[in-house]
Specification:
about 210 residues, about 5% strand, globular
Length: about 210
């Protein structure tokens, strides 16, 4: 039988990538704990989207990126030289990719002119929840900055902006679905969720 417990953390410490141990309340562990929560919230959003839809693919890519980010955060400064860009270290290109996604998403709906109250639908609510947790992780990073060359802070900053944009886009989609009677009027499980595929005129958008 394979056991998932090791008892190594019973002393209040946890292991880092490439070696070393730190207290479970260490800044890096607090950051990764928040990122782990954000991933779970993104999973809730994905569970409410149509499998294989555009939004499903976007969120899946973000979840995978967050594993890269957590690997970097969980590496001691002395071992940063062992990190691989895009695999265990966040790159500037990953940040730019989020910026492009933000800009493209902004073209798909009219920006709100008032404060937004989360909860219009289950997808947007889960995205807003993930956004707030990402903000918490970003605050923790700013309190304990990683190496100067790290892109962890900028990535979290852009990600929170993107999640806000995606939540507003999904609210717009939800309103249109109710107005025009498109499939997916009712919130439902993954098999019943509406498709996030854009109409033909928007095929060039992400």
């Amino acid at each position: 039988m394979v056991r998932i417990y090791t008892r190594k953390g019973d002393d209040g410490t946890t292991g880092l990538l490439y070696g070393g141990r730190v207290p479970k309340h260490a800044p890096a562990i607090e950051i990764n704990g928040a990122v782990d929560e954000a991933q779970a919230a993104l999973g809730m959003a994905r569970a409410e989207t149509a499998a294989g839809s555009e939004l499903d693919g976007v969120l899946l890519g973000i979840e995978r990126d967050l594993y890269v980010l957590m690997a970097e955060v969980a590496t001691a400064p002395a071992n940063r030289g062992k990190l691989a860009p895009g695999t265990s270290a966040v790159t500037a290109e990953m940040v730019v990719s989020l910026e492009h996604r933000i800009d493209a998403t902004a073209e798909r709906f009219a920006m709100p002119t008032e404060f937004v109250l989360p909860g219009d639908n289950r997808v947007s609510a889960a995205l807003d929840l993930a956004r707030t947790v990402v903000r918490r992780a970003e605050r923790a990073v700013s309190a304990t900055p990683p190496a100067p060359e790290s892109s962890v802070g900028p990535y979290l900053n852009r990600l929170s902006d993107l999640l806000w944009m995606l939540a507003r886009w999904q609210e717009t989609e939800h309103i249109e679905a109710r107005t025009y009677g498109r499939a997916g009027d009712e919130p439902g499980r993954r098999s019943r969720a509406r498709s996030s595929t854009p109409p033909p005129s928007e095929k060039g958008a992400p």
